[in-house]
C-alpha cells in the first residue's frame, strides 16, 4: 500500500507537494479509479483547460504519466492522485482500465522490457521511468510482441507527427511574437522582458518545444546580467537566433541531417544518453582530454546544469578542439560531482551528431594522468575566435563555445578586464563577475588560456601563467 | 548595406520600433512582406554582432596592479591548507588569527600566492599591520575599506593600536605626530591617545601634556594630569611616591640568623587603591632606602601576597621581566596568565619583547595555566607571534603539559566542552617551526573536536616544509 512518506519522497520539491495539496478536493477529480487486478490507478484532474488532464499511476513500480505540460516529474496532479490513493483509497472506483490507461500500460510493458512510451529525457531526471525494472516484465509470445511493437511504432510515429505539427505552429507563433517586439521597439524590451518572455516560453512548453522555452525563459536574466552597452547587440543576437531556429525548422527538409539533429535538440527533442553511446555512427574521439573548467548554472526549471568543458591536450590533434559534458541534477539534490578542473585523462568521447560537434559523452574513461593543469600552446586568440566564427557559419544558432588560445594577456579597459591577443592587441571582454578573480592575472603573460565565449563575453576558465596554472573555480 | 550608416539605420529602426520608424527599402528583399523583412533584418544584425572582430585595445596599460615581491610564493599544499583554514574560520576567529597567519607566512620567508588573494579577501581585511605590500595593493585596488573604516569604534581602535605601536618604537616621533592630529579626533579617542603616552613616558612629554591640560574635554585633562603625576619631579608624583613607599616596610625575624622581610600595608580605599597608587613607579623608586638588593626582593616579599603583582609590575617598568616573573612565581597559586592579566598594569605599556621575556621567565613548574584561558589570548598578550625559542620552551614546560592535560581531561569528561577556541587561543601565536610538535601534543583530542586548531596547525606545518614554492605544481600541457 502506498504511504504518504513514499509520496513525499517522490515529489520533485516541496512546492510541487504544496501545489498537490490544493488538488485534494474530490470536486477537482471527475474520475478516480483503480484496477483491482493490477492495482493501477488512474484519474482525470480538472485543470484550467476545457478538457481534464488524464493521469495514471502504477503502484507496483511507481511509474506514472500525466497529460499536463508540467516539467516536473511527477507533476502536482500525479502527486495529488497518489496522495488521495494513500489516504482515501475508497475514493477510487474499482473498474477496468480506460483505453488510454490500457494503452499506456501496453507501452510500458512491451516484451523488450524497456519502457518505450516516453523517450528518456537527457536533460531531466525521470524517476518514474527509472523505477521500472526490466526483470519484472514478462515477455509475451514473439508474434504478439512483434505486433505490439509495430503498433507502438505506429503510435510513436503518429505522436511524432503531432509534435512536429505542434512545434511548427508554435514556431510560427514565436515569429509573430518576435515581430511584435520589433514593432514595439527593442529599446523598451528590457522593461517588459520578464513578463513577455515568461508568457512566450510557456506557450513554447505547451507546443512541446522545451529547449526554446528554456532559452527564452533565461533571456531576461542574461540580458540584465551584462553591462548596459552590450545589451542591444545581445538582444539582437538572441532574438535573431530564435528566429534562425524557427526559419530552419520550416526548411528542415532541405537541411543536412547533422543540422536537423542540431535543430531538434535546440527545440527540445531529447536524445537518450544510452542511444548516443550505443550508436556506432556518432563521431568518437579517443585521446587525452583536459578539463579546462566547469560551470554550474541553475536553470529556470530548477535543474542544475553542470558544464564540464574539455579541450584536447594536443592542439595539433585531428579531433574536435573542444567538448562539453552536460549533467543535469535537481537543485534540491545538490551539486553532482564534476571532473575537477585541471584534470587530464584518457578518454573516448562520443559526440552528439552536429554540424559543429561540441556536446559529448564520455564513452570510455581512463585514469587521471595529471591534475591542476591548464591549457598551454595552440592557436592565437584571434585565430581561436576565427575558428569559432567558422563553427558559427556551420551552425548559425551555435551557443556558448570554448575558445582555447596559446597566448594572451589580461588588460583593463572601460572598467572591465579583457583577454588580449598579444600579437594583434585585439581583445575579448571578460565577464564582469570575474573582475576580482581574474585581476591577479593582470600584467602576466599567459602561455595558454581557455574560456567560454557567448558571442560577447568570455568567461575565463583557466590559464597557464608564470605563477602556475590559474583556474576560475579555485 | 555594407555602409555603417545603413546598419545604424536598421539598428535604429528595430530599437525605436517599426511602428514608429519603418524599415528603409532593402535591396534583395523586395519579395518579402514587412514582418519577414523585419525578421530577416533582425537575424542579419544579430549574426553581424556575433561575427564582429574583437575590439582593438592598443596602447592600454598592461602592468600588474600588484607590486613585485621577490619572496617565493606558498607552495600548492600550503595554499590548499590555508584556504581550508580560512573556510573553517568564523568572523571572530578570523579577526584574531589573520595577523598571525600573515605574520607566520612572512616569518617563513614566503608570501601569499597572488591567485589566492580573491579567495582570502576576508582574511586580508583583518590582516592589519601584518599585510605585505602585495596584499595592501590588492585591497586598495579592489576597493576594500581599511579594517574598521566603516565602523567608527573599530577605526578608533585601529588608530589607538597603531599609535601605541608607534609610541613603543619611537616615543618622541609618536608624540609629535599626535600633537599634530590630536585636535581633530573625538574627545573619547583624544583621552585614550593621551593616556597611551604612558608607554615610554618621560620628562620630554611634560610640555605636550601641559598643553593637554587646556583641552576642552575633561577626560583629556584628567588623562594628562594623571600622566604628569607620573613624571619624576612633579609635585604630585613626589607626593604619590611618598605614599606608595609608606606602604612598604621592613621587618627582621629570627634569633640566630636575622631574616629581613618586606611588609606591606595597603592604602585605604577600594580594592584598586593600591594599584592606582603604585601606577607608574619602577621598583627601584619604591624600594629606595629599604636596604634590599633587587634580586633579594622576591624572596623577601613572598609573605606579602597582595603586593607581589604590584612589585612585578614595578619590576617590568624598570625593564626587569625576569624579576617580575620571580615575583609572580612566589604567588601561592600562581595561575598564568590570569595573574599577569590581573596586574594593575596597562598591558600596552609592555612591548612585545618584554612580554615574551615575562612569559619565558615565568615558565617555572610552580606556575599553572588556566585550563580555559578564559578571556585570554596568548597571541594578543604577546602582541604577535611567539619566538621559536620561547615556543619550544613553552611546549616543553611543565605548566604547558599540565594545562594540556587539564584540557584533555575536560574533553574526555564532557561532550559539551568545546576545546577548539581554547586550543586556538593557546596555539595561535606558535611559530611554524613547532607546528608538528604541537599537533602531536594535541593528538589525544579528536580532530573533530578541534577543527579550527587542527586546520591552523596543518597550515603552519605546511609552512615548515615548502616544496619549491615558486614553481607550478604540475607541468603544463603542451
3D structure, described in words:
- The complex is a heterodimer of chains A (474) and B (478).
- By secondary structure, chain A is α+β, with helices and mostly antiparallel strands.
- Chain A has four domains: 4-140, no CATH class; 163-266, no CATH class; 272-370, Beta Barrel (OB fold (Dihydrolipoamide Acetyltransferase, E2P)); 381-471.
- Chain A has helices spanning 4-10, 14-21, 76-87, 99-108, 127-130, 142-184, 189-206, 210-225, 231-250, 257-267, 273-278, 381-394, 435-438; strands spanning 31-34, 41-45, 53-58, 63-66, 93-94, 284-298, 303-312, 322-330, 344-351, 360-370, 401-405, 408-413, 416-420, 426-429, 445-446, 448-453, 458-465, 468-471.
- In chain A, the strands form four sheets. Chain A has a five-stranded mixed sheet, sandwiched between helices. In chain A, strands 8-7-6-9-10 form a five-stranded antiparallel sheet. A four-stranded antiparallel sheet of chain A has the order 11-16-17-18.
- In chain A, a hairpin with a 2-residue loop joins β12 and β13.
- The longest helix of chain A has 43 residues, at 142-184.
- With 478 residues, chain B is mainly alpha-helical.
- Chain B is built from 25 helices and five strands.
- In chain B, the strands form two sheets. Chain B has a two-stranded antiparallel sheet. Chain B has a two-stranded parallel sheet with strand order 4-5.
- Chains A and B meet through α6, α9, α12, β12 and β14 of A and α1, α2 and β1 of B.
Annotate the secondary structure layout.
The complex is a heterodimer of chains A (474) and B (478).
Chain A: H1 4-10, H2 14-21, E1 31-34, E2 41-45, E3 53-58, E4 63-66, H3 76-87, E5 93-94, H4 99-108, H5 127-130, H6 142-184, H7 189-206, H8 210-225, H9 231-250, H10 257-267, H11 273-278, E6 284-298, E7 303-312, E8 322-330, E9 344-351, E10 360-370, H12 381-394, E11 401-405, E12 408-413, E13 416-420, E14 426-429, H13 435-438, E15 445-446, E16 448-453, E17 458-465, E18 468-471
Parallel strand pairs in A: 1-5
Antiparallel strand pairs in A: 1-2, 2-3, 3-4, 6-7, 6-9, 7-8, 9-10, 11-16, 12-13, 12-15, 13-14, 16-17, 17-18
Helix pairs in contact in A: 1-3, 2-3, 6-7, 6-9, 7-8, 8-9
Chain B: H1 4-16, H2 34-50, E1 55-56, H3 76-88, H4 91-107, H5 121-125, H6 133-141, H7 152-169, H8 171-181, H9 187-195, H10 206-212, H11 218-228, H12 235-247, E2 248-253, E3 259-264, H13 273-278, H14 283-287, H15 297-300, H16 308-317, H17 321-328, E4 335-336, H18 338-341, H19 352-361, E5 368-369, H20 378-382, H21 388-396, H22 398-413, H23 419-427, H24 435-441, H25 451-464
Parallel strand pairs in B: 4-5
Antiparallel strand pairs in B: 2-3
Helix pairs in contact in B: 1-2, 3-25, 7-8, 9-11, 10-11, 16-17, 17-19, 23-25, 24-25
Amino acid at each position: 500500500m502506498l504511504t504518504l512518506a513514499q509520496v513525499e519522497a517522490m515529489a520533485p520539491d516541496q512546492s510541487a507537494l504544496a501545489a498537490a495539496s490544493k488538488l485534494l478536493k474530490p470536486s477537482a477529480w471527475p474520475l478516480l479509479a483503480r484496477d483491482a487486478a493490477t492495482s493501477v490507478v488512474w484519474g482525470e484532474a480538472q485543470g484550467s483547460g476545457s478538457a481534464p488532464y488524464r493521469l495514471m499511476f502504477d503502484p507496483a513500480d511507481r511509474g506514472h504519466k500525466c497529460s499536463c505540460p508540467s516539467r516536473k516529474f511527477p507533476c502536482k496532479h500525479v502527486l495529488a492522485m497518489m496522495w488521495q490513493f494513500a489516504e482515501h483509497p475508497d475514493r477510487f472506483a474499482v473498474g477496468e482500465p480506460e483505453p488510454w490507461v490500457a494503452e499506456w500500460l501496453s507501452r510500458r510493458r512491451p516484451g523488450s522490457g524497456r519502457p518505450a512510451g516516453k523517450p528518456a529525457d537527457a536533460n531531466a531526471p525521470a524517476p518514474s521511468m527509472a523505477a521500472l525494472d526490466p526483470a519484472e516484465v514478462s515477455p509475451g509470445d514473439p508474434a504478439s510482441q512483434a505486433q505490439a511493437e509495430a503498433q507502438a511504432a505506429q503510435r510513436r510515429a503518429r505522436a511524432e507527427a503531432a509534435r512536429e505539427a505542434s512545434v511548427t505552429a508554435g514556431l510560427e507563433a514565436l515569429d509573430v511574437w518576435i515581430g511584435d517586439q520589433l514593432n514595439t521597439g527593442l529599446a523598451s524590451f528590457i522593461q517588459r522582458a520578464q513578463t513577455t518572455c515568461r508568457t512566450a516560453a510557456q506557450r513554447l512548453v505547451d507546443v512541446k518545444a522545451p529547449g526554446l522555452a528554456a532559452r527564452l525563459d533565461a533571456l531576461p536574466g542574461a540580458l540584465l546580467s551584462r553591462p548596459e552597452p552590450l545589451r542591444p547587440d545581445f538582444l539582437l543576437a538572441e532574438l535573431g537566433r530564435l528566429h534562425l531556429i524557427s526559419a530552419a525548422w520550416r526548411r528542415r527538409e532541405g537541411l543536412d541531417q547533422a543540422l536537423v539533429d542540431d535543430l531538434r535538440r535546440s527545440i527540445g527533442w531529447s536524445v537518450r544518453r544510452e542511444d548516443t553511446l550505443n550508436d556506432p555512427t556518432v563521431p568518437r574521439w579517443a585521446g587525452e582530454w583536459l578539463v579546462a573548467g566547469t560551470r554550474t548554472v541553475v536553470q529556470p526549471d530548477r535543474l542544475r546544469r553542470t558544464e564540464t568543458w574539455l579541450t584536447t591536450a594536443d592542439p595539433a590533434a585531428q579531433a574536435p578542439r573542444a567538448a562539453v559534458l552536460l549533467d543535469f541534477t535537481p537543485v534540491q539534490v545538490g551539486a553532482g560531482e564534476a571532473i575537477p578542473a585541471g584534470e587530464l585523462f584518457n578518454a573516448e568521447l562520443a559526440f552528439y551528431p552536429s554540424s559543429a560537434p561540441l556536446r559529448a559523452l564520455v564513452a570510455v574513461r581512463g585514469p587521471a594522468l595529471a591534475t591542476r593543469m591548464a591549457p598551454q600552446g595552440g592557436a592565437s586568440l584571434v585565430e581561436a575566435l576565427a575558428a569559432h566564427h567558422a563553427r558559427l557559419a556551420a551552425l548559425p544558432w551555435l551557443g556558448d563555445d570554448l575558445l582555447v588560445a596559446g597566448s594572451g594577456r589580461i588588460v583593463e579597459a572601460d572598467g572591465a578586464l579583457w583577454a588580449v591577443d598579444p600579437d594583434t592587441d585585439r581583445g575579448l571582454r571578460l565577464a564582469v563577475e570575474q573582475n576580482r578573480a581574474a585581476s591577479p592575472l593582470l600584467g602576466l603573460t599567459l602561455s595558454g588560456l581557455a574560456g567560454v565565449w557567448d558571442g560577447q563575453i568570455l568567461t575565463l576558465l583557466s590559464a597557464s601563467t608564470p605563477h602556475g596554472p590559474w583556474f576560475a573555480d579555485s | 548595406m555594407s555602409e555603417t550608416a545603413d546598419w545604424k539605420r536598421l539598428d535604429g529602426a528595430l530599437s525605436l520600433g517599426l511602428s514608429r520608424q519603418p524599415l528603409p527599402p532593402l535591396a534583395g528583399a523586395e519579395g518579402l512582406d514587412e514582418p519577414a523583412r523585419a525578421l530577416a533584418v533582425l537575424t542579419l544584425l544579430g549574426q553581424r554582432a556575433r561575427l564582429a572582430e574583437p575590439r582593438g585595445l592598443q596602447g592600454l596599460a598592461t602592468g600588474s596592479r600588484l607590486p613585485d615581491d621577490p619572496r617565493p610564493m606558498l607552495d600548492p599544499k600550503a595554499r590548499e591548507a590555508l584556504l581550508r583554514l580560512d573556510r573553517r574560520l568564523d568572523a571572530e576567529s578570523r579577526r584574531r588569527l589573520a595577523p598571525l597567519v600573515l605574520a607566520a607566512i612572512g616569518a617563513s620567508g614566503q608570501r601569499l600566492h597572488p591567485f589566492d588573494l580573491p579567495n582570502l579577501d576576508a582574511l586580508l581585511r583583518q590582516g592589519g599591520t601584518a599585510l605585505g605590500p602585495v596584499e595592501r595593493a590588492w585591497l586598495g585596488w579592489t576597493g576594500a575599506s581599511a579594517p574598521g573604516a566603516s565602523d567608527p569604534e573599530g577605526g578608533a581602535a585601529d588608530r589607538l593600536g597603531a599609535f601605541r605601536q608607534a609610541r613603543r618604537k619611537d616615543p618622541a616621533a609618536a608624540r609629535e605626530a599626535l600633537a599634530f592630529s590630536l585636535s581633530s579626533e573625538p574627545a573619547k579617542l583624544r583621552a585614550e591617545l593621551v593616556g597611551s603616552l604612558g608607554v615610554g613616558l618621560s620628562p620630554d612629554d611634560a610640555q605636550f601634556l601641559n598643553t593637554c591640560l587646556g583641552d576642552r574635554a575633561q577626560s583629556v585633562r584628567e588623562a594628562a594630569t594623571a600622566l604628569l603625576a607620573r613624571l619624576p619631579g612633579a609635585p604630585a608624583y613626589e607626593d604619590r611616591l611618598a605614599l606608595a613607599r609608606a606602604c612598604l616596610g621592613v621587618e627582621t625575624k629570627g634569633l640566630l640568623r636575622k631574616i629581613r622581610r618586606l611588609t606591606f600595608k595597603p592604602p585605604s580605599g577600594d580594592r584598586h587603591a593600591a594599584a592606582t597608587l603604585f601606577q607608574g613607579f619602577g621598583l627601584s623608586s619604591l624600594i629606595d632606602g629599604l636596604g634590599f638588593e633587587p634580586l633579594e626582593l622576591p624572596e623577601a616579599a613572598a609573605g606579602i601576597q597582595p603586593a607581589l603583582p604590584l612589585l612585578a609590575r614595578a619590576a617590568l617598568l624598570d625593564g626587569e621581566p625576569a624579576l617580575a616573573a620571580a615575583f609572580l612565581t612566589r604567588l601561592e597559586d600562581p595561575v598564568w596568565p590570569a595573574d599577569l592579566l590581573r596586574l594593575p598594569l596597562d598591558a600596552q605599556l609592555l612591548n612585545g619583547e618584554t612580554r615574551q621575556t615575562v612569559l619565558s621567565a615565568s615558565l617555572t613548574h610552580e606556575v599553572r595555566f588556566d585550563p580555559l584561558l578564559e578571556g585570554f589570548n596568548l597571541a594578543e598578550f604577546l602582541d604577535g607571534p611567539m619566538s621559536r625559542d620561547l615556543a619550544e620552551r613553552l611546549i616543553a614546560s611543565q605548566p604547558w603539559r599540565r594545562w594540556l592535560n587539564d584540557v584533555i581531561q575536560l574533553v574526555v569528561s564532557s561532550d559539551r566542552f568545546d576545546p577548539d577556541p581554547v586550543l586556538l587561543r593557546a596555539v595561535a601565536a606558535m611559530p611554524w617551526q613547532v607546528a608538528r610538535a604541537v599537533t602531536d601534543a594535541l593528538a589525544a583530542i579528536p580532530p573533530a573536536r578541534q577543527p579550527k586548531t587542527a586546520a591552523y596547525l596543518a597550515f603552519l606545518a605546511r609552512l615548515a616544509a615548502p616544496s619549491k614554492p615558486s614553481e607550478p605544481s604540475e607541468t603544463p600541457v603542451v
